[in-house]
Amino acid sequence: MARFHEKPQLAVAEQYLAAGTYYWNSGMFVWKARTILDALARHQPAIASGLQRIAEAADRADFAAVLEAEFAAMPKISIDYAVMEHAEEAIVLEAPFEWDDVGSWPAWARYRPADDRDNRIDAPRHAEINAGGNIVCGPETDQAVVLAGVKNLAVIVTPDAILVADKRDEASIAAVTGELRRRGWEEYL
């Protein structure tokens, strides 16, 4: 591996695609526990220290409290940025299967049939009027979800919360969890 580069800017990603000589990270990693712990100790000592304190509490009565406190105190950084961008001894294997990150609403929508206006709907009671390219996921209740004159939205309805977002703005959608935590609204996560 020459270099691991996580989420390049759009222009750089387009250059990578045009070159045709780059591999895309699926987010699947295989390593020995000692290898990743050593890498965390080198590149993210705060995370490594927190993991050590959690491990030390594994057989104690206060384990749940230690786990909660340590996890909350750890830096919020993906393994890609924390370790993989610094990796010197990584091997890339080409996988013989397709991959999709179903952790995002646009990816989820790719597995739903589209109607004639490219809406992807999973809600028992829904209606669309001059609406296209939307994602709707609703609860199994009598609550109706109606879209009128809107395009490219993700509308996610749960019994206690509603998310309405531009489905193309995955960064903002991903930031919702942090914003809810910041406000102390964990009950909506």
Describe this structure in words.
The chain is an alpha/beta fold and 189 residues long. It has 2 domains: 1-98, Spore Coat Polysaccharide Biosynthesis Protein SpsA, Chain A (Alpha-Beta Complex); 105-188, no CATH class. It is 35% helix and 13% strand. The protein has 7 helices and 6 strands, in the order ααααααββββββα. The protein has helices at residues 10-19, 33-43, 45-56, 63-73, 79-82, 105-109, 170-182; strands at residues 120-122, 126-129, 135-137, 145-148, 153-157, 162-166. It has a 4-stranded mixed β-sheet with strand order 1-3-5-6. Strands 2-4 form a two-stranded parallel ribbon. β5 (153-157) and β6 (162-166) form a beta hairpin. The longest helix has 13 residues, at 170-182. The radius of gyration is 21 Å and the shape is flat. The two termini are 37 Å apart. The mean pLDDT is 89.
Descriptive labels:
single chain; 189 residues; alpha/beta; Spore Coat Polysaccharide Biosynthesis Protein SpsA, Chain A; four-stranded mixed beta sheet; 6 strands; 13% strand; flat
Q: Quaternary arrangement of the chains shown?
A: single chain
Instruction: Give the termini separation.
Output: 37 Å
Round the mean pLDDT to the nearest integer and report it: 89
CATH fold naming of the largest domain: Spore Coat Polysaccharide Biosynthesis Protein SpsA, Chain A
Q: In terms of structural class, how would the helical and strand content be classed?
A: alpha/beta
Strand content: 5-15%
Number of strands: 6
Total helices: the number is 7
Helix content: 25-40%
For the sheet with most strands, the description reads: 4 strands, mixed
Q: Could you list the spans in which at least 5 consecutive residues all have pLDDT below 50?
A: none
- Compute the CA-based radius of gyration: 21 Å
Order of helices and strands: HHHHHHEEEEEEH
CATH superfamily of the largest domain: Spore Coat Polysaccharide Biosynthesis Protein SpsA, Chain A
CATH architecture descriptor name of the largest domain: Alpha-Beta Complex
CATH level 1 name of the largest domain? Alpha Beta
Shape: flat
In order across it, which strands form the biggest sheet?
1-3-5-6
